[in-house]
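Lecture notes, part 5. Sequence design as translation. It can be helpful to think of inverse folding as translation between two languages: the language of shapes and the language of residues. The source text, in structure tokens, appears below.
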């Protein structure tokens, strides 16, 4: 959904949305298992481009690896303003 639309699960405001809260919780839990604190960040299910085809797997952010939980959050947020619109259906068959 559109991060500017209050009804979207990806809505951006002064508070963390449900996805950001989940990223923070899971990221905090897994970071203790990583020596270098570097993570790849992938998105599942977004529309992009003039044909608005659903992309079932895509890299979040400009870099293949990000640093720490804050890097994961920044990668997620970068997608919201890149022309992608989080969307379903998410198909994991090709992932």
């Amino acid at each position: 959904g559109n991060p500017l639309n209050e009804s979207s699960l990806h809505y951006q405001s002064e508070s963390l949305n449900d996805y950001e809260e989940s990223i923070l919780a899971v990221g905090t839990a897994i970071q203790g298992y990583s020596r270098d604190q570097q993570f790849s960040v992938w998105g599942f299910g977004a529309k992009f481009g003039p044909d608005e085809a659903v992309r079932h797997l895509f890299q979040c952010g400009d870099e293949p690896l990000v640093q720490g939980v804050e890097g994961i959050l920044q990668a997620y947020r970068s997608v919201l303003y890149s022309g992608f619109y989080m969307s379903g259906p998410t198909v994991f068959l090709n992932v």
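The translated text above is only one of many valid answers, since several sequences can fold into similar shapes. The mean pLDDT is 87.
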